[in-house]
Amino acid sequence: MTTPLKVAVIGAGIVGTSTALWLKRDGHDVTVFDRVEPGDPNQTSYGNAGLLARSSVIPVPTPGLVKAVPKMLFGADGPLFMKWRYLPKLLPWLVPFLRGANEADVRRTASALSEILGDAVDQHAAIAQGTDAARYITKGSYTFLYKDRAYFEKEALSFSIRAEHGFTWDEMDRDALLEVDPNLGPSYTFGAAVHDHGWITNPGAYTAALFDAYRALGGAFEKTEVDDIGGGEGSTRVTAGGQTHSFDRLVLASGAWSRKLAERLGHRVALETERGYHIMLRNPSVRPPCPYMIGDAKFGLTPMAEGVRAAGLVEFGGLTAAASTKPLDLFRRTLRRVYPGIEWEGEDTWMGHRPSTTDSLPLIGESTRAKGIFFAFGAQHIGLTSGPKTGRLVADMIGGRRPNIDLAPFATDRFDRLSDA
User: How far is residue 190's CA from residue 115's CA, in Å, rounded to a whole number?
Assistant: First the structure.
């Protein structure tokens, strides 16, 4: 066992909860700070598609994206939305983000992400073992659903990169799709069922159950907003609710809200919120046999304990603007194409904030400007998938164990270096 340390974790979503649980299993004295309870609907970890999408190594910006943006924004079924008043504030982030839409950057990003995603299903099984959270994990294929083979072939680069990183899939024509899903509408005639994936049947309850396991080991929780953090030789501090608390180490894992605190330390963090949505269909008449990625609409459709969840899309509008209705309307229209005869008794809707960097990679590791403070945020669309692995990596670093992957692509000072150049 490593020497026990007093550690603060800022953020109780899937990344913060995973980090805290691994740290407690190492024997450390841990306190988690968050303004909401773990598993609360106000957490991003609550509202995701529930996918353990280990093959999601391809970033959003890919070759051709810039030309496609007008159609994605203004087309009748475009999956991209914008709060136009926010555009001037967004531009310093958006320009370098779109600059990454080239093959060389996509390949670099995929290589880095494969290191934290490739064993994601096993990582979730490991952290959930012996806890109530294990019952929410289901294993199976993850099917990319397309109108026809031509749509699939437009993503040839993405699938070739996946193949290079060891991912395999079955190509499915219309007959093969109907064999496993006879309710599928005629708009979709081709699929790629990627092997060895998984999904969470209730993401909010799953995060809460992992946090219960952390509490059962003696972990502490402070329900409060963190105002400031600081670090230095030998100690770190958290200021919350007018009080300052001292710790040996501190982990910043508060998702899209991490930027403000990281900048207090002197870092430049090229991070924005990609606002995502979901609609949960209660007691639907039809359920998919496994999670689908709807290729034309760019969102996930996942069978869950409480029904079927359509989740994803992208809206830029910052952290404070009200939710929009157009993304939800797109979900409903697309659902009628996927399952023309579907009915449901009721629905719940949600909007949350993905923490997305300009290079589509999270920040993982110790701050170069505040010794003893570790970053674990910025996982954009793959926060749930990568959460347990990220938490284990940070716990290893705090415990003095050398991680078995190259963490250079996730360096906490990489945006500082750009601004200093």
Answer: 29
> Where are the chain's structural domains?
6-420
Closest CA to 146 of 174, 176, 175, 178: 174
pLDDT in tens, 147-205: 999 999 999 999 999 999 999 999 999 999 999 999 999 999 999 999 999 999 999 99
Which architecture characterizes domain 6-420 according to CATH? 3-Layer(bba) Sandwich (3.50)
Q: Show the CA angle centred on residue 7, arms to residues 207 and 269, nearest 5°.
A: 75
pTM of the model: 0.96
- Would you list the DSSP string of 278-314? EEEEES-S---SS-EEETTTTEEEEEETTEEEEEEEE
Q: Which helix (H) or strand (E) holds 211?
A: helix 203-216
Residue type for position 295: G
Q: Distance between CA atoms of 196 and 205, rounded to whole angstroms?
A: 23
Contacts 24+ apart (CB under 8 A), 398-405: 398/5, 398/7, 398/23, 398/26, 398/28, 398/249, 398/251, 398/374, 399/2, 399/26, 399/28, 400/2, 401/2, 405/115, 405/116
Chain center to CA of 407? 18
Whole-angstrom CA distances from 67 to 29, 76, 146, 204, 354 are 51, 17, 21, 37, 24
